[in-house]
Amino acid sequence: MFPNEKNHKERLSQRVVKGGFWVFSLRLVHRLFSLARIVILARILAPHDFGLMGIAMLTMATLETFSQTGFQQALIQKKDNVESYLNSAWTVSILRGIILFSILYCIAPIAANFFKVPEAKSIIQVIGFSVLFQAFTNIGVIYFQKELEFNKQFIYQLSGTLADFIVAVSAAFILKSVWALVFGILAGDFVRCIVSYIIHPYKPHLSSDLGKAKELFGFGKWILGSSIIMFLTTQGDDIFVGKLLGITMLGFYQMAYKLSNMPATEITHTISQVTFPAYSKLQDNIPKLREAYLKVLQITAFLSFPIAGLIFVLAPDFTKIFLGEKWMPMVPAMMVLALWGLIRSIGATKGPIYQAVGKPGIATKLQFVRLILLVIIIYPFTIKWGILGTSLTVLLSILPVEPISFYLAMKIIKCRVWEFGKLIALPTLGVTAMSTAILASKFFIFSITGMVSFFALIAIGVIAYITMAIIFDWLFRYNIRETIQKQFFG
User: Fold this and answer.
1) What is d(CA 25, CA 282) in angstroms, rounded to the nearest whole number?
2) DSSP one-letter code for 325
3) Which of 91, 281, 354, 414 is deepest in the core (most CB within 10 A)?
4) pLDDT in tens, 311-332
5) How many CA atoms lie within 13 A of 350 on its CB side?
6) Do 54 and 258 touch, CB atoms closer than 8 A?
7) pLDDT tens-digit profile of 185-207?
8) Predicted local confidence at residue 197, as pLDDT
9) Distance in angstroms (rounded) separating the CA atoms of residues 152 and 180
């Protein structure tokens, strides 16, 4: 390897590590605010209010998903300079935003009538302004992700998070209604739009060169297809619950989903933001790509398993202590969805591989298979067991697909089954020991009566898990300590 090539790879590695630190920090801060927001608002508002907001967000997400361009991913994946594409992409974004806003305003009565909730009409119409704020956001912020400048991404995203938290919580104390949630989201998107022009020097302008947009869509069409199928598999259950079981049960289900999948969502978001641009730069070097992927998988598994285990074991206690008795009906669904969140976080390591090597169609086709399984079993399961049945549907539909997906990813990076299997099997044993320690302490030493005992059990579980990791390092050369030291401490 020539010196300049070696230095380039070292610089890339350092940028990936620094980028990962900033993205993880952002998501950690964001979720701390989000969790505090949920706990506060859950105490003030009713499940019905969260269900109303869920309908509005579902309606908006449906239109956004079915009009996805995939331009952002295409711009990141391109190895050459993309500045000549920015104005065309921004122009399409604005046109799309105006059209979506108009459609949202017009179909609001239809959506409200579909779910048989008349008060959802005005909420859907007002929340549509969020689409406009996102459409007019400075396209230049794409460079934060493309060039791994996540310190700037941190400031950009955090500004909206703070605005959402402050406005939503303040409005909740004053209004004590679903409008607190609406105003919070609008404030967050508006502030991000303004900050995007302050934090990045690029000044976009309207362009009539739609040929560039057509070129980007050659890659983006697979992102569109994947986004549609992903939406149907991850949000179709919300639509089904809202229609079949009613608005209040939708509120329970969405709260269970958010809390159980919050860690998984953060891990997947961090992974996709950092690894996709990094993998794109390594797409022609399979050995380096494989090495990078296995390190990401190891760290992801090491973090995801204990988080999912804690949510699964302590879901009833967390709900009773922090949210109140009125939210207890969601606990069984929350426990099942914690397992789904674990699989989702591990599975998220593969998507950036497919996109980076220019094969996003693989993920689209596999998601379609999962969608078929979901459609087949969701109705009988939901009719028989309510939101618990819906949760089981979400979990069961992914189990046959993930092994195939991992096999195809390993084939691309030429990874042996043992290399992959070891990174999953050892955390599985660790989380089993952790759960056993928590349950034994809970039933034989002390019962949970408040926050002190709740956090004491978390500490017991974490100590048990770390102890098992040290044993694995010694017996099986798991090397998690070495991996963490190299990736995060140089």
Assistant:
1) 25
2) G
3) 354
4) 999 999 999 998 888 899 999 9
5) 26
6) no
7) 999 999 999 999 998 888 888 87
8) 93
9) 29
At position 483, the amino acid (one-letter code) is: T
Say how many C-beta atoms besides its own lie within 10 A of residue 295's C-beta.
17
Please name which of 313, 316, 315, 273 lies closest in space to residue 296, comparing C-alpha atoms: 273
Burial class (CB in 10 A: 0-12, 13-18, 19+), 489: exposed
Q: What is the pLDDT of residues 343-354, one digit of tens each?
A: 988 888 888 888
**Per-residue DSSP letter, 177:** S
Q: Which two tokens stand for residue 120?
A: 């959802």
Query: Which three-class secondary structure state does DSSP give residue 359?
Result: coil
Place of tokens 């390591």: 349
The two three-digit tokens of residue 399, written as one number: 């189990």
Q: Is 280 strand, coil or helix?
A: helix
Give the residue from 125, 127, 135, 113 showing the smallest Cα distance to 67.
135
171 pLDDT more than 70: yes
Query: Which residue is listed with tokens 């305003």?
Result: 105
Helices (H) and strands (E) in the chain, counts: 21, 0
Q: Which two tokens stand for residue 182?
A: 């609406």
CA distances from 127 to 53, 95, 389 (A): 9, 18, 30
- The DSSP secondary structure of 131-152, one letter per residue, reads HHHHHTS-GGGHHHHHTT-HHH
Of 209, 212, 231, 283, residue with least CA distance to 60: 231
- For residue 380, count other CB atoms closer than 10 A to its CB: 11
End-to-end CA distance of the chain: 21
Q: Name which of 399, 413, 404 is nearest 294 in CA terms.
A: 413
Q: What is the mean pLDDT of residues 485-490?
A: 55
